[in-house]
Amino acid sequence: DAEITQSPRHKITETGRQVTLACHQTWNHNNMFWYRQDLGHGLRLIHYSYGVHDTNKGEVSDGYSVSRSNTEDLPLTLESAASSQTSVYFCASAPGRASGYTFGSGTRLTVV
Amino acid sequence: GQQVMQIPQYQHVQEGEDFTTYCNSSTTLSNIQWYKQRPGGHPVFLIQLVKSGEVKKQKRLTFQFGEAKKNSSLHITATQTTDVGTYFCAVPSYNTDKLIFGTGTRLQVFP
Fold this sequence. Notes:
Shape of chain B: globular
Mean pLDDT of chain B: 94
Number of helices of chain B: 0
Number of strands of chain A: 11
Low-confidence stretches of chain B: none
Number of helices of chain A: 0
Radius of gyration of chain B: 13 Å
Order of helices and strands of chain A: EEEEEEEEEEE
Distance between the termini of chain B: 41 Å
Distance between the termini of chain A: 37 Å
Mean pLDDT of chain A: 95
Strand content of chain B: over 45%
Order of helices and strands of chain B: EEEEEEEEEEE
Shape of chain A: globular
Oligomer: heterodimer
């Protein structure tokens, strides 16, 4: 069965370190997204991609970057982790621009 | 900027009672989506509404899109403990098609 997987499920890192969160989908979806979820803020869009080599900034993109070298993967990199980036991160994919999203199980990141 | 308000923020109900959450937009929407997130889980897509005044049902869940396409509601009849979770509406961002999520309504059902 097709799926979308995120790794790791939990990560603790130190302030200033570079961290990469993985997202891999086998749905063959063109559209992929990264959200962070914090209490009181709901789900906020970090970056998104509509296809290979396409990346776009969301509403909270500062301090984050993504790259899309193939259809399946959209890794999210925190260039220099900060305590404000402690959050739960969700990756999602969708077949088209007006389609429902399929979410991964999330990565809980703690920056100490 | 575009705003998506979702009310109530929390709702506690006795099992068997009905529940409704509302989503209101400051702009006219092309469509609206609803998601459910169980505690500790990830959002799961429930449904998309596109037409003005559209009503769709999924078992005990009834989804409605307003006539002016600026608001929507999710109604659960006779809640069960399995309905526990946070319900989010999501709308396309103005002039783009990125989804903006509402802040969610957290439902707690007491047996």
